[in-house]
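pinned: reference chain
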Amino acid sequence: MRNNKGRIDSILLMAAMAISFLGIVFVYSATHNRSGDNLFLNPMAIKQCMWCLVGFVLLFLIARADYLRMLDMAYLAYGLNLVALLFLLFFGDVHYGAKRWIDLGPIAIQPSEFVKITAILALAAFLGERRERTGSFSNFVLGLGVIMPAFLLIFLQPDLGTSLVLIPIVFAVLYVCGEKIKYIIPVIVAGICSTPFLWSLLKDYQKNRLLVFLNPDLDPLGAGYTIIQSKIAIGSGGLLGKGLFNGTQSYLKFLPEKHTDFIFSVIGEEWGYVGAATLLFLYTVLIARGLRIISKTEDVCGKAIATGIVTLIAFQVFVNIAMTIGFMPVVGLPLPAISYGGSNTIVTLIGVGFLLSISRKVE
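pinned: its structure tokens
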């Protein structure tokens, strides 16, 4: 694809389209009832199609625009996002033990998903304004300060998983954009040393998830149930899987959250190792193209945005899959553009749109 301002990365675009298509397929597979329904009668699959459509409209609009001009609105977008998070904290309804969604009639918006993008843009704008102070201690501290309000508001919802996403994002962006590793390492060490204090801040269900991660049999019918069923589903898929729409763990409702956080378990059961590896290959292509854009981008703002988005996608893919196979505790992170959910899908495609916009500057 070409326009008068440069070439759009077609490989990156095709990878995003393929992942989104698979997301629709597996949301349908995880939620259909085998009673003769089809894609057009399945409400969750229909919504996922609509969210993908909205996401791709935004993707193409952003890809065709100049990301530097969009940064003029970065602080405003981030500020409004923080206001939405603050509103949730005081007035939000509790769903699944947390205040995460703003209900707007037939749809619900999750501000913590959108802050992943607005925080990256705000951080990029900040670093762009302070190019001459790159590598200074003050730049590093203030960069952390840009992200801290979002981190605290999300942590208080409470949403441990989403708040933790912001940590690798800010460190990756600061490091790639010239901040010194000697500032980053002490903060990481201090965070590790503060674990006992942070443990006391966790809710009981969050503590149970961490304990069950160490020993799922500690509560096999409670906090450990989901991860046990997830590993059974993935393991039973074998090499080639049981076939699309033929997953027994999901159909018989042994597997909770099968269309959201644990949709990879459905993929592993129905498509087996080959299907799971195919999805990982598509994510690898997407991330590799993002890394290529980072390496070729000389503008600090573009480098910051691309680094933040690639880190966001890569971290969520790693944590979600590791969570479903029992390598990490359950933290409630969706699989980008695969898990059911409008906010997650749209934010992922917006992120790809920014990568495509940046790629036009370097191709």
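why pinned: Strands lie at 2-3, 6-7, 102-104, 107-109. The chain has a mean pLDDT of 87.
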